[in-house]
Write a structure and sequence with these properties.
Helix content: over 70%
Order of helices and strands: HHHHHHH
Structural class: mainly alpha
């Protein structure tokens, strides 16, 4: 596999991921609790003081549907990346996909969460706009990247590895 292709795929994956996030938060969607499970607990608590409380556990229907859609979306993107990079075995597909998922986890945490999420009003939930300190919780995002983020990354990586083997 060509390292330059992989580096280009890293940039493209970050661009696609960023686009998906921004499209997801357009319009009235930012005022709904659809993705509130991604927010720190103190922001959730403040939001639920003035809005209907929803289940934010990882077993809730909303979270399972969101994460399930993410697995399918990432598997498709990562399978294309593996194919373009020339992966021919399970381990090549798995390692490429897992590496790209680890990369996107670091990118998401260090840039999207720490810089954009913390500072752009479009990511502030209604009624929590005043909570600057809560939106700048770096450790919350690092913990989320490590667990369940790493576990989440294993699923599309394994699917990509299997699909590479099945297709080739």
């Amino acid at each position: 596999m060509n390292i330059w292709v992989i580096l280009i795929e890293m940039v493209a994956f970050a661009a696609i991921f960023t686009t998906v996030i921004f499209v997801y938060y357009l319009g009235d969607r930012k005022y709904s609790p659809v993705s509130i499970h991604n927010y720190p607990p103190d922001i959730q608590a403040e939001y639920f003081k003035t809005h209907e409380k929803v289940d934010v556990s990882y077993r809730s229907k909303n979270v399972l549907l969101t994460k399930g859609f993410g697995v399918l979306l990432f598997t498709g993107i990562l399978l294309a990346c593996a194919w373009i990079a020339g992966a021919r075995t399970f381990w090549q597909g798995f390692l490429l996909a897992f590496g790209l998922m680890a990369w996107i986890g670091v990118y998401d945490t260090c840039f999207l969460d720490w810089v954009l999420f913390a500072n752009l009003p479009m990511f502030r939930l209604e009624g929590t706009e005043h909570m600057d300190k809560a939106y700048h919780q770096k450790w919350f995002h690092v913990k989320g990247m490590l667990f369940p983020g790493i576990i989440f990354a294993l699923i599309p990586a394994a699917l990509v590895g299997w699909l590479v083997t099945a297709i080739r």
